[in-house]
From TrEMBL, chains A, B:
Keywords: DNA-binding, Transcription, Transcription regulation. Residues 3-70 form the HTH gntR-type domain. InterPro entries: GntR_C, TF_FadR/GntR_C, Tscrpt_reg_HTH_GntR, WH-like_DNA-bd_sf, WH_DNA-bd_sf. The keyword Hydrolase does not apply. The lineage of its organism: Bacteria, Pseudomonadati, Pseudomonadota, Alphaproteobacteria, Rhodobacterales. SUPFAM superfamilies: GntR ligand-binding domain-like, Winged helix' DNA-binding domain. This is GntR family transcriptional regulator. SMART domains: FCD, HTH_GNTR.
Length: 232, 232
DNA sequence: GCATACAGACCTGTATACAGCCCTGCGCAC
DNA sequence: GTGCGCAGGGCTGTATACAGGTCTGTATGC
């Protein structure tokens, strides 16, 4: 808060938008939200406009701000975009990352533990994103990291759902990716990443469907604070 | 204007930011700009916040809005990001674009004429971007188009400089790319695109240097309204 | 029962006011 | 001549007020 009220509102509203605490298509009442966050509408609208530029919120002239839609096509496109950036990043990381930076990524991966047991869905996704951003950082191109981060925000909600849906083999696949990076095997790294990241349209449709049901439940936020399903 | 004052301000300010009509690092005086555009500071700041989210303008709490920096490293990173997206787009276009959509892109390319003679630098870059966005559109993924567009805005100024610097073989390379797309030869399309798009760091440093000298000249805008150098 | 028109409340869009901070420029001391 | 401190102006940050438009809900007619 000391570093700017708009910044605080931006972060708070972003978190809400990312997690679909505003329901898809819902009109966002500036007055109510402003009062709730102890601010006036002026800085709130400034923060909202940033979210509009990030596609986390929609704006219709004369009507105000609305929560973005949640539809399978958009999510699918975002997954593909994510795959494009990540595979390109992995290829470049294999070619130009320093051995010590790669080693640091492995350390980070191992520091997260060998299993996802005992973690909440949210925590697992956070760690997953951190690993993938770590790969992007190996490229040494801040734009790659930034774009990936922006995309992650927009699919994070569905990733929570997805992570809860099935026992993901996240950890094992991360290790495989890590090995490919250490071997500096671009093609293998890209190939493993591709299958690790990408989802089929029918999987996405199912996740979106479940996402909707979560959104309209009583306390949807708690859902993702439960522990991940046991890995076998 | 009818479709929202903020939208109008956003478009106007974006054009200025893209073309470095604000000088790099310059503080943007809200009061002056607002008066100039016949608006109050409230909608102006809303528009500015969108530009902040798009990295076209910087914001420092307590100090206001500043024009973004113009430095070779950022430009280089953006070029690489552009290359990542474009090569991935071309590969996918080869695989999944319909033959008629590809034919439509060729029509667009030929409608632009067989040479860049008689066009201003601005016009050539506009057409160049349109062709590349056309490839991105072949993928059928709106995110790919959007991200490419965002990146293009941030390097457009340097592309103007670059297009004026040397007789670019733009048109010929576009034809080669087009042929690769028609042959659905992913690898060739990606390879040609890569050399067509990418710039070496020393080229970028030179362009940025020239960019600065243009920015601090009397009437920098006219510079890019001159005709492109004769192609031999 | 259903569609339509109207009225009222509500909400958005923008201007403006004002408090507080930042920066500049001047003066003073060294 | 140079560095530091202080005061003033100017700019930013936010709240608030108000005008205009949008939506809702009701009442009326078919």
């Amino acid at each position: 808060m000391s570093e700017g009220r708009v910044e605080f509102l931006y972060q708070t509203l972003k978190a809400r938008a990312v997690g679909f605490e505003f329901r898809p298509g819902e009109r966002i009442n500036e007055g109510m939200v402003a009062k709730e966050l102890n601010a006036s509408r002026t800085p709130l609208r400034e923060a909202m406009n940033r979210l509009v530029a990030e596609q986390l919120v929609e704006f219709r002239s004369g009507q105000g701000f609305f929560c973005r839609a949640l539809d399978p096509t958009s999510i699918f496109e975002l997954y593909e975009m994510r795959m494009i950036i990540e595979t390109a990043a992995a290829r470049r990381a294999c070619q130009r990352a320093t051995t010590s930076d790669i080693a640091a990524l492995r350390d980070q991966l191992e520091a997260d533990g060998l299993t996802t047991a005992g973690l909440t869905i949210r925590e697992v996704v956070t760690r997953d994103e951190a690993f993938h951003l770590g790969i992007a950082r190996l490229v040494g191109n801040s734009e790659v990291v930034r774009h990936l981060d922006r995309i992650n925000e927009r699919i994070r909600f569905i990733r929570w759902v997805d992570m809860g849906r099935r026992v993901r083999t996240t950890k094992g696949e991360h290790l495989k990716i890590m090995e490919a990076l250490e071997a500096r095997d671009s093609e293998r790294a890209a190939a493993v990443l591709k299958t690790h990241v990408m989802r089929r349209m029918d999987e996405i449709v199912a996740a979106v469907r479940e996402g909707y049901s979560n959104i309209f439940m009583a306390d949807p936020e708690e859902l993702f604070d439960r522990l991940v399903p046991d890995g076998d």
